[in-house]
Amino acid sequence: MSRFVLTAIGPDSYGIVARVTEALAELKCNLADSRMSNLSGHFAMILVVDGSGDLDEQTIYKAVQSRCSELSLLVDVKRIDGSIENDLDGERFVVSVYGTDRPGIVAGICDILAVHHANIFDLATRVIETETSPVYTMVLEVALQDLRELAKLEEALDSKADELGVTCSIRPSDTEEL
Question: I want to staple 101 with a disulfide (CB 3.0 to 4.6 A). Which of 130, 132, 136, 153 is the partner?
Fold first, then answer.
């Protein structure tokens, strides 16, 4: 078996997911992992794809391009070495950040998480337009290996949030969703 990562981004339109996955199904590829999202009118996808041992990047690329040529997708395919085992897992938490939109929020919060060895598993941001001013939102799922560090992490996040002029909270992850 061969494993690949496929990325595609382009203007959002109907049928992007259907066309890409149909091309992969014709090659008898299986989706092992995926993330897909509309980002300000552009659709982006990252897929981890398993295929036969003789499959190569060019074959996958050509199959996807032939199905999606009129969609203006930027497609890239790279072979990867299976799953990567790491020791970055731990107890899961959700970090929520809200405030007036400004540069540096993601960098500031993520720096604190890195310093305290909180591994980011998922991160989503969005600007919500309101009648008064745009509100920046960021939600992260992180893993913390050493729960004794939680109080220090909370304190550091509170301090950084004050500095950035945002509110920040951290809570245990409630569910085992995707």
Answer: 136
